[in-house]
Amino acid sequence: MPHLLRILALIMTALTLALLGWHEYGMDSTLHIDAHSTYLMEAVDDSSDGGSSKMRLLRQGKRIRIECQLTDKYEWPFCELGIKLADPAHALDFSDYDHVTVKVKYQGPGSHQLRLFVRNFDPAYADPKRNESWKINEVAFSPKLEGEVVTIPLKSFSVASWWIANNHIPLAHIAVDMRNVPMIQLSTSGFKEPGLHVIDIDYIEFHGKWISREALALVLVALWVSFALFALLLDLRQLRRKLLNSRRRERALETLTSALELENRKIGDMARRDPLTGVRNRAGILEELFRESELARSSGRPLAVVFADIDHFKRVNDEFGHDTGDEVLKQFALELGSHIRNGDYLVRWGGEEFVLFFPNTPLEGAAALAEKMRAHVETTTWPAALRMSCSFGVTVLGAEPVADFIKRADDALYEAKRNGRNRVVSRTVPEAAQRNGKV
Ligand SMILES: Nc1nc2c(ncn2[C@@H]2O[C@H](COP(=O)(O)OP(=O)(O)OP(=O)(O)O)[C@@H](O)[C@H]2O)c(=O)[nH]1
């Protein structure tokens, strides 16, 4: 894992743990209501429904006191504290609250049962002007005479069935809905329990988290998925870069290899060529000579050799200098080269001596060619207007070692020199070499 990713993973892990811990032990969101709260509070009793109960709403410091003289005139007599939180259009969202605590003391006859209503406004079924049309999410509880803090989970709320029936609410809207709450209410039980009921409310508090556990989990999952994608992308980029680098290295290596191969070829070539004339040297003909001699023997086709040596070349050097001698040698190689075909070989044997190999050429053919070259050397123009001549020794390969064949041509050349130079001497294959097949 790259360094950056490792650091990021550490940060992400720390962030996740911090968020989870914070959510568990902090991130609290509370809605506190008491007599000092600025919300509009109203006392409602059953007199509006034809009953005769009377309710008084008192503020005693932070405490809200309800004094309710309940009668049994109305079928479901009640006294009710209404707390208006906002207009229906700007109502509060209670869906992130988890529970509500009520510090309350209830004195009076009967069951001491209270009902807490969390009203929900939804334009799909409710009229903003008729608050009886707002959904009633309700819970009932019975605080002790001496007072206590009652804790009620919001999931204990249910929608009042009589409200569903009275308002003909379709099935799609009968579930508890804690969003969009314009009002809460605290009401007596609705049972016929005539007498004076005194209810002291120190506070009503809704508790929750800024962000629900599910939303936090979603955020964390989104974070980790983004991290994984980022890591993948980074990995992909690095892989691509590595691939490009290795391709670049491969190409550089290929270039280097081909340069080296070329250099090797050049060096090999240089080792087999005479630097002055550019024709092969002895080392440069060995392989071909072996191959051609084998071919000549197996095919029965003649392989001819011609030794050519410039006459009195020493005088050129002595009289005109070494440089002129070099020029003569270069031209001599060119003149010989211009007389041979593709597949023939021209070799500088050493000094002013050159050797030509003619595959598939009989003795007479090679001698005729040597004669042509001799005549050409005699008549052509040379550096320093020199007049040059050349002697030739010619033979063909018999059933003999290649060295014997070379030596015979050299002997023929020597004979040409001895006999006055500027001539061609041919030597046939001796009888012994014609009969046995020794190589
Ligand atoms: N300029 C030059 N001279 C060379 C080179 N290689 C050999 N020589 C000279 O060639 C001469 C050969 O002389 P010799 O062997 O006496 O033969 P020659 O003078 O040609 O006489 P014959 O062969 O008997 O006709 C020598 O003087 C060598 O120094 C070369 O590469 N350049």
What does this structure look like?
InterPro entries: Diguanylate_Cyclase, Galactose-bd-like_sf, GGDEF_dom, Nucleotide_cyclase, Rev_trsase/Diguanyl_cyclase. Keywords: Membrane, Transmembrane, Transmembrane helix. It catalyses: 2 GTP = 3',3'-c-di-GMP + 2 diphosphate. The mean pLDDT is 94. Helices cover 38% and strands 27% of the residues. The chain is built from nine helices and 17 strands. The chain has helices at residues 3-25, 161-167, 213-271, 286-299, 313-320, 322-337, 363-379, 402-418, 431-435, and strands at 28-33, 40-45, 54-60, 63-70, 79-84, 97-107, 114-120, 135-141, 148-153, 158-159, 183-188, 195-209, 303-310, 345-350, 353-359, 390-396, 424-427. It has two domains: 28-209, Sandwich (Jelly Rolls); 286-435, Reverse transcriptase/Diguanylate cyclase domain (Alpha-Beta Plaits, 2-Layer Sandwich). The radius of gyration is 60 Å and the shape is rod-shaped. It is an alpha+beta fold and 439 residues long. Helix 8 links the parallel strand 16 and strand 17 (424-427). Strands 1, 3, 4, 6, 9 and 12 form a six-stranded antiparallel sheet that branches. Strands 2-5-11-7-8-10 form a six-stranded antiparallel sheet. The structure holds guanosine-5'-triphosphate (GTP).
